Amino acid sequence: MVYTPKSNFQNHPFHLVSPSPWPLYTSISLFILTTSTVLFMHGFNLFEYLIFISIINVIYSMGLWFRDIISEGTKILSSFLFIAKAISTEVIKKIISNIDNNKFNLSKDQFGYYLAGLLESDGHISLPFMGNTTLNRVLNPRIVFTSHKNNIELYVYIQKMLGGVGRFQLVNNNIIRYIIGDIKGITLFINTVHNKLRTPKNESFNKLIGFMNKKYNLIIPLSNLDKSNFSENSWFTGFTEADGHFGVKIVDFKPKSDIHKRSVSNSVSLKFRLDQRFIDKVTSLFMFNIMEKLSIFLSCKLSTYKTPHGQRAGGPDNNKVLSLNVTSIGNIKFIIDYFNKFPLLGIKYKDFKDWEIIYGMIISKEHLTENGRSKIKLIQSNMNSRRK
Asked: What pTM was computed for the model?
C-alpha cells in the first residue's frame, strides 16, 4: 500500500478524516448545558450564567467542527476531481493567426512521423466498451494528448494539420488536453500515423484500428512497426518533445581544502537526456528494444535506474527506467544537426535553441571567460522548468 503526502491527499490509506477535538469538546459543552439547565430548573442559584456560557461553547465548538468538515471535504474533492473547462474557439483562432509559419512548416509525411513520435511519448489511446450501453449511447475511442499550457500553440498547429478535428480542455489552469473522439477525427489520425509507430504503443494503436473496423465496418489495415532510419524523418523529434531534456551543468572553482581533497576547476558541460519506463504501462511490453536502437543512433550508452518509490505492483521491473545520456561534444553536435533539420515545435524548442547557443560558446572557448560564464548562467536560469 502506498501512502501519499498530506499535501496530495490525506493521512490514511482509506477515507478517514484527521483526528478532531471538536466532537469531544461539543459533547462536554452539551453535557454541561444539560446539567446546568436541570439544576437551574430545580431552583439552584447562579446557574443561569453557566447556561449562557455553555450555549456560547456549543455554538463555538460546532462552528469550528463544521469549518473542519467543509475544509476536509474540499480537500478530498480537489484531490479526486480535475477542474476542466473548454478552451473557446476565439482563443484557438487567435493562436492560429499568430502561428509562425516558418517554424511550423512540416510536410504531411514528416508531420505524420512527428505525430507518431509524440503519440508514443505523450499520448494515450482509450478504448470504450464495444457493446451497447444501458442508455444506448454511442461510445467512441479517444486519443488524448496532455501537456503544459505553454504548448498550446503546438497542439493548435496539430489540430490545424488534422483539418480542425478534436477539442481542447484547460485543466487546473496550467494543463491542456487535446482530445480526438469523433469518427472522422480518429480515422484521419489513424491514416496520418499509420505504419509510422516504433514502440509497443503500436499494439494499442492496432487495437484502436480493430475497434474502428469492427464497430464502423471499416477496412483499415493493421499498422506495421516502422523500421526506417531515425535520421530520415521527424519521429525522434516528436518522441523527444515530451521526454527529452537539454541540460547545462556549470561548476564553479573550489580550492583544495579539508572537504575537497582536490581543487575543482571552472567548467561548463552539456547533456541531452531521454528517459522511458522499462515497461510500457498500457501494453506491459518492454521498451528496451526501441531505447537500445536510439542509443546506437545517438552513439551513447543505455543505462537504467529505479524510481525512489520502491517496487510497485506488477513485478520488479515496474519502477525501472531506461535512460539515454549524451555528453560528448561530438555527439551533441550530431543532436544539434538533427534538431535543426527536424525542429522541435513545442516550448522545448526554446530550450534547444538556448542549449545550441551555449554549445557554440563552448566551441569558441567563450565559456572560459568570466563574461562568457555569466552569460551562460543567465541563459541557464531561464531554461526547462524555470522558463516563464
From this structure: 0.74
